[in-house]
Amino acid sequence: MSKESVDTIQSPMGMVSSEGKTTHQLRQVHPGAGVCRLDTKLVVVGRKPGPEGLTVDDGTVSRRHVELRREPDGSFVVVELGSRNGSRLNGQRLVAGTAQPLAVGDVLRTGDVIWVMEATPSSPPAPGVSREAVFGETPAMDRLRMEVGQAATDPSPVLLIGETGTGKEYVARELHRLSGRSGPFVAINCAALSPQLVESQLFGHRKGAFTGADAHHEGLFRAAEGGTLFLDEVGELPSSLQPKLLRVLQEREVLPVGATKPVAVDVRVVSATLRDLARQAEAGTFRLDLYARLSPWEVRIPSLRERRGDLVAWLRRLVSAWFDERGKALAPPELDADELERLMLHGWPDNLRGLDRVVHRLCSGGGLELPRGRDGPERPSVSVSTEDAGVTSRPPKPSAEELAAVLAANDGSVRATAKHFRRDRRQIYRWLEQYELKSE
User: Fold this and answer.
1) Which helix (H) or strand (E) segment is 306 a member of?
2) Is the separation of the CB atoms in 44 and 54 below 8 Å?
3) Mean pLDDT throughout 339-356?
């Protein structure tokens, strides 16, 4: 396959056609890459696959290249059909005639065409949520847009959980835009707050409250009056400040340093963290009651590894931004099949920040140099609802007495209690806070 510019893209199914009736889907995202949505149908992929097959118009793909099928136990496999140029799964060459397990997130190469395995979409469209702000076409991003749409207009706080570089602030800004609040969006990185002045920075101070306080300062909460305050890296807040933040969330008022009377504030708080606050609360390093107050809505931002099908689209977007920022005519770098496969297989430990560095080097005339860190065929953990998995529905919300009894029977273990109710530990913590119960 000749090298192709990363801005080149045909119609969504320009490289792929179906000769028979099938619900199996292949979506092209680049002349040399696409997305394969795992489905229930047996399907042969190739240039001339026959009935019930999917045709891939690429000279490096054989007439009947690979077969994808679902096994009786519900799992998926791929079988190499003795193609001329061979196939690779997660970088490992497939042996002709041998079935290999296939899972969501796997990277399959047929000749010089690379496919990312993707789940079948299960989330309905989210009207009004910007696809530019919450960018991507994978099911993981469909789910995220749905959750953003649900949480946006509710005044309760939102906790965004995701690795570094996943775009948490983009999501926070979209939550603010959709909230209808007339005040400003104010963002602050809690890890960057001065340990000595953090209370003043958040809640304000009166003139003369401390050495150097030469004038009144309103603080970030009052600066966001009527709008949204985004507390990035909220897990980095000093333990001494956590009860004061809790009081602000409960009473909707701040007490500036040096003041004797609190000041009412109308602010919606959206916070973000890459830490497991539930585990920190369990370990006693983050207040359980504050965690519960911050997370009536808890939204998880998927990593780039969990949305590999969006990687090429993000590459094009970042390349365009790089040239726009410099006032240059778009001259996208070229990637061959091997380079594209390396991009798809990389672990992306710092997510979009790492991809942005790759784009900078490529557009500056350098070669493809991937960030250090996780590399290779790492399968992402994919959330599957009990309904999707065919599992019996979860028990209903317990009463305080039922929850206390199960907790006692499990020696106060939140993990075991969560397993009993088939809920996330974070939900157990919220119930404990609501019922004013304590765990070990």
Assistant:
1) none
2) yes
3) 94
